């Protein structure tokens, strides 16, 4: 049975916490200060430590030094002096979570409900690391280059905590897979994981999509709608392309992160949120702050544990490993047995892949379709981008005689792909309004449907 150590200098608080913890199926020990806590740790190593931040003889964070780093222990800090700084410091040290006095007992129960799985979690991380050594895999991620192994180590450390994670990397580097892997290795892994692209939702609807709305709160709101925060309660919410979120909504997101409370559109009733946030951006976040795309206070709140995803061109032989994996999936799905020629593998290794893993996956699918049975040669499908160009540039070819409408269509789709599907960013690059871009895409969709 899991064992919990409760450290607080208030006798009533110790008694109340002890009763709740025991009801949740834990054995308990109590201490009024650091000295007594150290004695209890020697008597029986705890699985969970619930400790006040301010104790008569020091800080609750001092107990991190007393715990055996080889044994997984979940530390939950309690403070009567709420501050983002103290919470961030606690999470960076390895705390699983923190609670503010007066303690919300429902939130405490929700945290304890996740704790008994910590032992299984350690075994799962160990299993994943073994899988990495054998096949270059780590959960849903693939790659055995030094850059990826370093990333796996960082994910393995941050996943079991409640720290907010900021994923930074170019488009196509696999940020959503990394976020999913963090969730799968966390204590929340049996709760929902929801992903939302902040740049793909209409600015007029994003607040409703994030926080929900009440029936009749605006034209077209015919029923109550639960937003992403409510639907991911107890789990993880992945906010992709966070710099594309409207500034006015970033203020409300910051409030949710600091208070754990939000309101649906059309009501003043606050709803409690127990959600871990993982955010991602393909921009340099500090440049986004300087350009006014990202609030500085939100950036610091999200940047508790930054993870940098390496571009494919910096991952050594991972392009070959990934390409073979994508091809194996296609062979399995279609009952074929195609393979790459040595020349094709050399070509894959030499290409800079400015679109990263996403571009590589699309290319493998094209080559698979174009190739005859058996071997996929180097010329099965042309590389779309000139390898002599800088990795950040791409180009399209407009032959003489092409109509302006078709040239316009190709430019829009190429720009949208270059921007990783973020419509707001693509509209800015093209110099048109987001509404105009949506209208063009709807026209193309209707035209394609009528042509079928």
Assign an overall shape: globular
Q: Write out the CATH superfamily name of the largest domain.
A: P-loop containing nucleotide triphosphate hydrolases
Which percent bin holds the helix content? 40-55%
Strand content: 5-15%
- Gap between N and C termini: 63 Å
Instruction: Give Rg in angstroms.
Output: 25 Å
CATH topology of the largest domain, which one? Answer: Rossmann fold
Report the CATH architecture of the largest domain. Answer: 3-Layer(aba) Sandwich
For the sheet with most strands, the description reads: 5 strands, parallel
Protein architecture, described:
It comes from Pigmentiphaga soli. The modification 4-aspartylphosphate is found at residue 52. Residues 141-369 form the Sigma-54 factor interaction domain. Keywords: ATP-binding, DNA-binding, Nucleotide-binding, Phosphoprotein, Transcription, Transcription regulation. This protein has four domains: 3-117, Rossmann fold, CATH 3.40.50; 136-308, 3-Layer(aba) Sandwich (Rossmann fold), CATH 3.40.50.300; 312-376, Helicase, Ruva Protein, domain 3; 404-451, Homeodomain-like (Arc Repressor Mutant, subunit A). Helix content is 45%, strand content 15%. The chain is built from 18 helices and 18 strands. The strands form six sheets. It has a five-stranded parallel beta sheet with strand order 2-1-3-6-7, with helices on both faces. The protein has a five-stranded parallel beta sheet with strand order 11-12-15-10-16. The longest helix has 18 residues, at 118-135.
